[in-house]
Each structure stands twice: as C-alpha cells, then as structure tokens.
Design a protein that fits this description.
The chain is an alpha+beta fold. It is built from 23 helices and 22 strands.
Amino acid sequence: MRFLRWFVRFPVVWFTIIVLVAVLTLDASGFVRTAKWIAIVYVSVVIVWTIVGMVRDVMRGHVGLDVLAVVAMIATIAVGEYVASLVIVLMLSGGEALEDYASRRAKRELTSLLDRSPQVAHVLVHPQADSDEVQDADAADVRVGDVLLVRPAEIVPVDGTLLSDDGSFDESSLTGESLPVSRSAGDEVLSGSVNGSRAVRIRALRRSADSQYQQIVELVKQAQEDRAPTVRLADRFAIPFTAVSLVIAGAAWAISGDPARFAEVLVLATPCPLLIAAPVAFLGGLSRAAKAGIIVKGGAVIEQLARVRSAAFDKTGTLTEGRPDLVAVEPAPGFDEEELLTLAASAEQYSSHVLADGIRRAAAGRGIHLLAAAEAHEVATNGVTAQIDGRTVVVGKPAYVASIAPDTERRSIREGEAAAYVAVDGRFAGTLVLADDPRPESRAVVSWLRDTGVERIAMLTGDAQATADAVARGVGITDVHAELLPPEKVHLAAQMRPRPVMMVGDGVNDAPVLAAADIGVAMGAKGSTAAGEAADAVVLKDSLVGIADAVSIGRHTLRVAYTAIWIGIALSIGLMLIATTGVIPAVAGALIQEGVDLATILYALRALTGPATGLVVPAAKPHERAAVDAV
C-alpha cells in the first residue's frame, strides 16, 4: 500500500525509472533504434509537459531551473544522448518529489494541536442540584451558560467561569508559566488548561470555536497560510547560467557555421550540477543535523537557519529548565535542613499534585531515605498531611499551613519563586523556596549567537515582567517582552528586524509564533508536541546548545552548497568554451559532464561533516529539585 501511495503521488519518478531500465536493457540487447525512440518519445512528452508548467510559472512571475532542464533535454536528444536525457528527467522529477515530500511533512504541524483539542464536555444534567449527573457532549456543542464538570487531570473544554470554591490549573501550555495557578470562584478558566487533582464545576463563558485553545489553532493555520514561499537556492542561478550557456553555444554555432556545435556546447551545460549538488549538500546537512539530535524539515529551513539575523526566545522550558528548582531550605528554630526536607519529601510521597515529584527528587539528590506514613491525605490545591514516624507533617500553602500552625512565618519571595511551608505537630517547621532557573547553557548560547552575526536577540514570554527581567539578565538578553498572549507574540515576531527571524519555544502557546516566524525551532525533548509540529526544526535533546548547532550546521551546509554550485558552473563554462573549438564531440562531452557532476557531488558531500560550534557550556550546578504548590 505504501508503494502504491508513493507511485500515485510521484508517477513521473517511477515512470522515468521504468523507461530508463527498459531503454538500457534494449540498448544492451542490441535493439538500439527501439531504445532510442522510446527515450525520445518519453522525453518529448516530459518536455511538453514541463513547458506547459513553465508558461504557468512565468505568468506568475517565477522562472526556475526548469528552463535550463528543458534546454538540456532538447540538446541531449538532438545529439543522440537519449540516456543522458532520461537521467536529466529523473533528476528533475526526483528533486520535485523530494520538495513535495518535505512540504507535506512541514504541513503536519496542526495534527497534534487538533488531536489535543478538547473533544468531549461533561454537561451537568441538573446544574442547580448537588448531583454530579452528567451527559457527555461534543465540546463544539456546548452553549454559553452550560454548567460543566471537569474531572481531575482533564483538559478544560471551553473558556468558563469557575463555580467551585477554588481550583488549581496547569496553564503552562497556554501561557508558558511552569507553576500551576490557583483560581477562586468567579475567576475565568481557559480552555486547554489542565485541571488539578479535584473535580470542579465551570459555567461556559464562550463557545468552543471562540475559546482560547481554538484561537491558538486558528493562529497556527493563519500563520502557515501567510508565510511567504521560499525560492530554491539553485533557481537563483538558473537564468544567468542558462543565458551564458545559450550565448556561448550560439556564438560557437555562428562562428563555426555548424549547428552541431550548438548541441556539443549545450551537452556540457546540463543542469545536473545545479539539480544535484545543492540537494545533496542539503541532504547532507539534514543528516548531520539529525545526528546532532535536530530534526530539520527540509533544505529550505537549513538555508534560513544559515541566514538568521534575529532570534527570539520563549522563557519557560526554553531559556529556563521549565520546572522549579529548590534554591533554599530554611528551617525554623528547632529543625535542621535535612530533617525539614526529609519530612516534607516523605509527606509529598502521598500527594498527587503535579509538582510533588520534584520534592521527592530533591530528597533523592541528597541521598535522603523517605519515611513511610501511617496515614496520609491531600487537600486539593492546599497541601498534604501525613502521619510520619509518629509526627503529623503538613506541606502546602501558607494559609493552609498557618491554619494548623499559627506561628507560621510568611517569607518574602521574588517574582518567579514559589514557597512551600511545612508544619510538624502543629508547629511551623520551615520553608522550601523554589525558582525556575535558567539553563546552564543559555547564556553561552545567547552569547555565541550574538558573536556569530545574530544582530538582535529578544525574549517573548507570557510570564510576569519581573520574572522575565530576572531571567533575561541572567542569560544576557536586554530586549524583553513579557506578559504576552499568543497573538501578541506573533505580532512582535512579525515586526522584528533584521530578517530572517528565528523563534525558539516549547509550549502550545508558542505554536502560532513558531509557525509565523521565518524559522521556528521547538525544544522537543520535554516540550509540547504541538510546538514541535508547528516548528521548522525540533531540538530533540534537552539542551539549548542544539540551537547553536542548528545555526552552525545551516551555515556550513549553505557554504558547501554554494561552493559545489560554483564548482559545477565554473567547470561547465570552462568546458563549454573549449567545446566551441570543436575538440569535444557530443558523446565525449556527455561523459565529461558526468565527471563534472561527480566532482560537484563529491564536494557537496562535505556537508555531512563540518566544524563544531566551539561553544563552551558551563557545568550545571547541582540543583536540589523540589516542586510544590505556588503561593
């Protein structure tokens, strides 16, 4: 079935291969005349079809390598090099097939967004009663005013107003904020956010089509449709190279008076160095990028990466680790750090909160053995209480802990930090302070980009201004735009100069701007699948060094492609000038041209290897990771 799909999608490639095999077989069997006419008829059909397409392209203002390919096919047929003409057809159709494949893959960016779109809503049958009897309905059928039940860990289907007393929601895919947010009765809850550990009721505020998540989907669609098409690298050489070739061939004919001289010269002007060298170089760059853990969606993206002049970064999960790190353990009098962390981590074993795992990992990082609880229970969005080693341990928000330990002392924290408060046997035991620190490599990557020609570097984030400023200072960025919604990110990226602009992000909220930027790069190791699909390139390793690697590989690949093209052009023009004297027969010219092709291909393969970025990344600090409820 897969072979059939490929045959239907790229019929010219497969027909050309079949015809080429048949012609070579007939020629080897002595049926030279039959082989010749089969090739001539087939190539003639391709020429007519190509000319029709060329006329359409010219009417749209685009002239590419098809002009040179047609001239080359006609010339090879004219001098009897029918096998060479079939090879040109194969190169031309194969290149178009590769471009079509890359284009189709690049258009898959909406798949994950649509798959993740809320599909089902639980509509309460008797919203005025205490009963939670629900009737499932398509999210698209929810009407404004309907009361919905959102179960633990479910995606909110539509924008709504919270009716329950309180709730905790993970909005990281929408805003980029790594810490869950708390909402109280009457607050607005956004579609696409993930409910916490307790079921809540919301009243639909907007229809599904008008809600936040669907608007992000529409932004991605619009951004993809508005993106300008990229011109193939080799197309830029098509007109001048074709013109020079025709001038040389025409002059040879005029001076010698022999029309065969025209064909002899044009045989050496075949576009194979252009048709093959650049694609080989770009495929080499794509392969090298893949080995470095970077998936680049096509040669055009490689070229754009090489030319990038501005870069914009999301904050959470991109410049930062994307999860809070324990930065301070502050025990109250009568407790020490190890005791406080041991009791807190042991209690958090019984929490289903999204951040509880961080506390356990922080303890594990110190080699702390966790204690079992005789009894434990969690109060959703507030904290957890556990009976550990005969002691009652409470970990959670300050208000919740203060209700149990009146001597609780609130700690002053900065923007971007979170604090977990701990009480033991009704007595305040201390505070755990957390912050989402920059990646250890972020500053080095930003500095490398600036030192290697990226003129403008900015941060575009939905986080608070103070938090964004603090992280930006740490990584060396001065151009900071904070508290942005997805449409605002798209607008700012569109206004950035100089171009091309590279945008780096990881969340669903970044998908529109990744699709709208000249080059969208997604941090795919822990980031949103939607962001990865919307991006032009995906860094699979959990390191920002991949951004520098991608740009470096793009630049090296483009240099190799240009050099290979110029080698092919220089050799072809030199040989054409020699052919004007008549010393190179058509058959010999075709064989020599194959040598030119081989030389350019061998050089283009240098894109498979290249210099390293030379980026020196500082060693990561030994963080004690903990994750707790935000204040």
